[in-house]
Write a structure and sequence with these properties.
The chain is α+β, with helices and mostly antiparallel strands and 140 residues long. Helices cover 15% and strands 35% of the residues. It folds into two domains: 31 residues, no CATH class; 94 residues, Immunoglobulin-like (Sandwich), CATH 2.60.40.790. The protein is built from two helices and seven strands; from the N terminus they run H-H-E-E-E-E-E-E-E.
Length: 140
């Protein structure tokens, strides 16, 4: 959760427009209090990440991945089979929603479901106009 110190810091007039970002991050943190399904985040380098979620029992049709206002949402829901008698249910396929706050210019570039693991590739895609540029000094 965002500390009161951080909230006070970003309420300083120097930080114009940051209050919205702090509110967004705080909201995403509060949504992510559940522990199911478990996940890993790997940082491959400064611009490439891999998010893996353990979703055994879910097919790709049972999963929904979306990005809204800088937040990545992964939702899962399995339609229960009502025409069979369940003797024992040990594989958790309960409904879930996981959210992850994405940093500036972060984009989900791909998703793959293999062996019960949903893998999302996340990249930082900085537009050319936002990249550092060198300014030449003109001779007179």
């Amino acid at each position: 959760m965002v500390t009161q110190f951080a909230m006070d810091l970003f309420n300083d007039p120097f930080f114009i427009g940051f209050n919205r970002e702090i509110t967004r991050l705080n909201h995403a943190h509060k949504l992510n209090t559940q522990s199911y399904p478990p996940y890993d985040i790997l940082k491959l380098n400064e611009d490439n990440y891999v998010l893996s979620l353990a979703v055994a029992g879910f097919s790709k049709d049972d999963l929904d991945i979306s990005v809204d206002d800088g937040t990545l949402y992964v939702k899962g829901e399995v339609a229960e089979k009502t025409d069979v008698e369940v003797v024992h249910k040990g594989i958790a396929t309960r409904k879930f929603t996981r959210s992850f706050a994405l940093g500036e210019y972060m984009e989900v570039s791909g998703a793959e479901l293999k062996d019960g693991i949903l893998t999302l590739s996340i990249i930082r895609n900085i537009p050319e106009e936002k990249k550092p540029k060198s300014i030449q000094i003109n001779d007179k």
